[in-house]
Structures are given as C-alpha cells and as structure tokens.
C-alpha cells in the first residue's frame, strides 16, 4: 500500500429513501448513490469529493486485491490536504454515472430492464441534489468543504448555489462557472461518435454488443483535450510507435496514435456509452450565470472559496477560473485564487499532487486557537493583591488575568472590569472579585468553537488550558475578530 494511503476501502451503495426531483420536471425513485468514505467516523468535518466527467466514487485507497489506488489518492489520506486524521472524506459517483450510482445502464424498477435512453435527462444540479439527499440520509447536516476538478468543480460550485448554508468551503479546480461553446462542441462530437456507431442501436444495446467503437472514438478525441501541446511534445514527439519508417497506410503508426488508441480501449472497459451521452449533456447545460451574469448567479453563496486553475489547461483555461473569482469578489465573498503551474494541461489536476496538496491544505487547514492565542500569558496567584493584578494588566496592556495555583493550574480569572468593581465595592482581596467557574478552551479547538463559547457565555476571553488544567495561553475576542479580518 502506498504510504499515507487510507489503505483498503470498499464502495457502499445507498438507496435514497426519497425521490430525486429533476430539473427537467421528471422524478427518479429508488436512486442508488455509490460512495466511499475515508477518515473520521463521526460525521464531523465532512469533505465531499466530486469526480470529473468519467470518474467514480473510488477516490482514494485500494480496493481489495488492487494495486492501483483511487484517482485522487495523491491528496486524500493521513497528513495530506484532505487529511483523513482530521476530516471525514466522502466521494460519490454521480447520478447518471455507471460506477454504482443509478444511471442509464441501471435497471428501471418499473420495467426490470435497463433504462437505456428512457433515463430522464439530468443536470449538474440534479447530481448535487442527489448528493445532498445522500448526505442527509447519512446524518450529515453540513459540509466542512466540497471539492472537485473539472465537472467535479462544477458540482462544487453548484453546491454553493443550491445549498449555501450547508457548505462552508468550496474548492473548484480546473473548471468554470458555465460551459463554453467549445465544451459543448467537444461534447457534441463525442456523442455523435457514439450515436453513429451501429451498435448503439438507438441506445438499446446489450452489454455484449456495446457501441465500443463510437465510445472509444469519443474518448480518443476528449483525451486530447485533457493534455497539452507541450505535454504531447514531451510524451510522444513525432516518434513512430513500432516501425522505423512510414507505412504509408492508415493503421496506427505514431506513438501518439498508439496512446490514444490505448486510452480509448481502456475507457470502453470501464464506461457506459449512454452514461457518456447523459453526463456530457449535463455538462453542456451547466450554467451558474443569472441573467447572463455570474456575479448575479453567485450572489447568494455563503461559502469561502478556493478557485484553482491549471496554467496549460486549454479546455478550462485560467480565464474561466478568474471569471469566477471576479464574480465572487464583486459580491464581496471570501475567495482565494491559485494557479497550478503545470505542462500537463487539463488533467494536471489529477497529476500535480505537490502543488494541490499545498494549495488545498493551506486553505482547508483551520486556524486553531493555538495559532491566535497569547502564549504563556501573565498570570497571578489568588493570594496576590488587587493592586498587583491592576499593575500587571497595565504593564502588559491586557484586560484578563488567569489566576493560578502553585502548579500553574487555573483556579480563576480576573478582568479589568472586576478591578473596577472592586474599587467601586471597596473589595480588598482578589478572591472576592475573581471568577472561579472559568470557561476554558484547548489549543487544538477551532476558532468557531471559541467564538461560540464567548457568545454563549457573554465573555471576551478564554484561558487556554491543557488536559491537566495548566494555563497555556489566553484567547480574547479582540484577537478573534482580528483573525476574521486577517484570515
Ligand atoms: C477526476 C476524475 O474523475 S478522474 C476520472 C477518471 N480518470 C480519467 O479520466 C483520467 C484521464 N486521464 C488519464 O487517464 C491520464 O492517463 C491520467 C491523468 C490519469 C494519468 O496520466 P499519466 O500518468 O500521464 O498516464 P498516461 O496518460 O501517460 O497514460 C498511461 C497509460 O498509457 C499507456 N501509454 C503511454 N504511452 C503509450 C503509447 N505510446 N501507446 C500505448 N499506450 C501508451 C501507458 O502504458 C499507461 O498504460 P495504463 O493505462 O495501462 O497504465
Ligand atoms: N480526464 C478526466 C477529467 C475530464 O474532465 C475524466 O475523464 O474524468
């Protein structure tokens, strides 16, 4: 097993208890969504991974007996960007897919036969709604983040529009806010290749006689769009695959021809032709603009965004990511942009693990209490005088003093307000004015928890203690609000 992998994993198949009401007006019942989950078991810090055009739920780890890991094993696992020690990572297969989720090759419960092209048309929005139903039925009530590349990035962006309060962070990689005419054009040629294959048979083909030639041709063309001119020079040049001289025929001669033929042959083993029709059409329909404006389309989002492009991607060029950034910025949303520098073209998001781990890890890793707290804050003993407490506060320009016992453990807290009250009330001893029942926090806790404790108890500071109650730091509401500005 690869180091830092989640190890052996299995795919689960969940039948949704509720129908999926589709954008077309149709509805699908008994929908199965295939998914895998890695890391935390407690449904906390859930990150949803959305796959690209021909992906599946097997994003990380190894299926029993496999030597090849899931398609995003490079960024999912212990200590990686999607750190399975910290997060619960869930990857699904899209509605309309053919890797376990309900799609055109699935059995129609009404007929007992495969849907074929009686399967209703679907959209990216429908995929996201099916994912939302799955998560709710798994008992998940919010997403720490949703992440995806290419069509997975479309799903991630669609999540922020469909369920703004449900998703806290969106990572959209090598994608767009809408499909361009070029995307539609490539999808159209791919579908034409499949539908012009006599074995497509109007969509009613048998597993033993699928339109493999058409599907392979569709893949060969699409695969070119996932590479780049530079990477093809490097990978293939003008080399001939086997012979030393031109054959003056039309068989596979050049290395690049051989590669594409191989990719086509591999693809038909793992993908269903009708799924290719439905999913590429869903990509065509993807458009988050409203009245032609992406700014209007993203106005209702609440998430924080990380938008990533790939420098050599000519299928989803960086300008499409920058358009998303402009629309988010125009709405005053919290958004960051990063560009993967890669010669690999669009599929760079599947290959450039070092850059992705850095960019995504930086964005996801929460700033914890430890990052913001005052380390080793001044403290005072219960036997000290009120005057000594006041002098410490003025000397350090602080308003809160932890009161500690001889071993450094916390026994109370005194604030500048307590000092003021002591003067007004003519109290003499610290013990008379300090608060003994102290609300504390631990250094690995999130800032979100700290803020909620301060709000709930109407306090403006939290001593940071270890498991033995020893004071490690002090976090104040002033520092917390600054962090929102700086984050
Ligand atoms: C995000 C998602 O949802 S992932 C979706 C599912 N995955 C995809 O669609 C990914 C599509 N892209 C690919 O498959 C790409 O190959 C990647 C990005 C996964 C891997 O890229 P690379 O590591 O550069 O591999 P490469 O593209 O060179 O393909 C390697 C394969 O081509 C073969 N190959 C390379 N050159 C040639 C050639 N001249 N002739 C024949 N075969 C060749 C290799 O032997 C290897 O074979 P394998 O498929 O049995 O492993
Ligand atoms: N090559 C990947 C990305 C396409 O966008 C796939 O086929 O899913």
Automatic annotation (TrEMBL):
EC code: 2.3.1.31
Active site, per annotation: 150, 313, 346
Record keyword Transferase present: yes
CDD domains tied to this protein: CBS_pair_arch_MET2_assoc
A GO cellular component annotation in the UniProt record: cytoplasm
Domain CBS residues, every copy: 373-432, 434-487
Main location: cytoplasm
Top EC group: transferase
InterPro entries in the record: AB_hydrolase_1, AB_hydrolase_fold, CBS_dom, CBS_dom_sf, HAT_MetX-like
Entry keyword set: Acyltransferase, Amino-acid biosynthesis, CBS domain, Cytoplasm, Methionine biosynthesis, Repeat, Transferase
Pfam families registered for this protein in UniProt: Abhydrolase_1, CBS
Cellular location(s): Cytoplasm
Catalyzed chemical reaction(s): L-homoserine + acetyl-CoA = O-acetyl-L-homoserine + CoA
Binding site for substrate: 219, 347
Gene Ontology biological process terms from the UniProt entry: homoserine metabolic process; methionine biosynthetic process
Gene Ontology MF, one: homoserine O-acetyltransferase activity
Pathway(s) per entry: Amino-acid biosynthesis; L-methionine biosynthesis via de novo pathway; O-acetyl-L-homoserine from L-homoserine: step 1/1
Superkingdom to which the source organism belongs: Archaea
Subunit structure: Homodimer.
Entry-linked PANTHER family: HOMOSERINE O-ACETYLTRANSFERASE
Function: Transfers an acetyl group from acetyl-CoA to L-homoserine, forming acetyl-L-homoserine.
Family in the record: Belongs to the AB hydrolase superfamily. MetX family.
HAMAP family, sorted: MetX_acyltransf
Protein name: Homoserine O-acetyltransferase
């Amino acid at each position: 097993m690869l180091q830092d992998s989640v190890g052996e994993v299995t795919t689960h198949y969940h039948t949704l208890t509720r129908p999926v009401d589709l954008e077309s007006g149709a509805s699908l019942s008994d929908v199965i969504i295939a998914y895998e989950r890695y890391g935390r078991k407690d449904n906390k810090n859930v990150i949803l991974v959305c796959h690209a055009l021909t992906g599946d739920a097997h994003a990380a780890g190894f299926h029993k007996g496999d030597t090849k890991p899931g398609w995003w094993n490079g960024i999912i696992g212990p200590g990686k960007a999607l750190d399975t020690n910290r997060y619960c990572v869930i990857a699904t297969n899209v509605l309309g897919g053919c890797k376990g989720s309900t799609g055109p090759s699935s059995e129609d419960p009404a007929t007992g036969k495969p849907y074929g092209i009686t399967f209703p048309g679907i959209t990216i929005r429908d995929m996201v709604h099916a994912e939302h139903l799955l998560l709710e039925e798994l008992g998940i009530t919010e997403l720490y983040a949703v992440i995806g590349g290419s069509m997975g990035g479309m799903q991630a962006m669609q999540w922020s529009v469909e369920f703004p309060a449900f998703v806290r962070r969106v990572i959209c990689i090598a994608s767009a806010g809408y499909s361009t005419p070029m995307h539609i054009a490539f999808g159209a040629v791919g579908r034409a290749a499949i539908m012009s294959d006599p074995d497509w048979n109007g969509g009613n083909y048998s597993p033993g006689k699928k339109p493999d030639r058409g599907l392979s041709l569709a893949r060969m063309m699409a695969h070119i769009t996932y590479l780049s001119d530079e990477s093809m020079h490097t990978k293939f040049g003008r080399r001939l695959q086997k012979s030393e001289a031109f054959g003056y025929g039309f068989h596979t001669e050049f290395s690049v021809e051989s590669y594409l033929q191989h990719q086509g042959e591999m693809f038909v083993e793992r993908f269903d032709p009708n799924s290719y029709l439905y999913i590429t059409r869903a990509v065509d329909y993807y458009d988050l603009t409203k009245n032609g404006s992406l700014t209007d389309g993203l106005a209702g989002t609440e998430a924080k965004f990380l938008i990533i492009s790939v420098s050599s991607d000519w299928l989803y060029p960086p300008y499409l990511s920058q358009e998303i950034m402009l629309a988010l910025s125009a709405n005053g949303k919290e958004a960051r942009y990063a560009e993967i520098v890669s010669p690999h073209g669009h599929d760079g998001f599947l290959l450039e693990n070092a850059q992705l781990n850095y960019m995504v890890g930086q964005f996801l890793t929460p700033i914890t209490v430890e990052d913001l707290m005052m380390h080793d804050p001044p403290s005072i003993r219960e036997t000290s005088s009120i005057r000594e407490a006041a002098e410490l506060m003025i000397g350090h320009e602080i308003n809160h003093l932890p009161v500690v016992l001889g071993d450094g453990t916390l026994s109370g807290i005194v604030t500048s307000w307590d000092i003021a009250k002591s003067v007004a009330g003519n109290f003499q001893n610290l013990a008379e004015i300090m608060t003994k029942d102290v609300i504390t926090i631990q250094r690995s806790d999130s800032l979100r928890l700290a803020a909620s404790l301060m709000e709930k108890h109407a306090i403006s500071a939290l001593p940071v203690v270890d498991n033995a109650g020893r004071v490690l730091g002090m976090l104040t509401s002033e520092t917390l609000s600054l962090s929102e500005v700086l984050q």
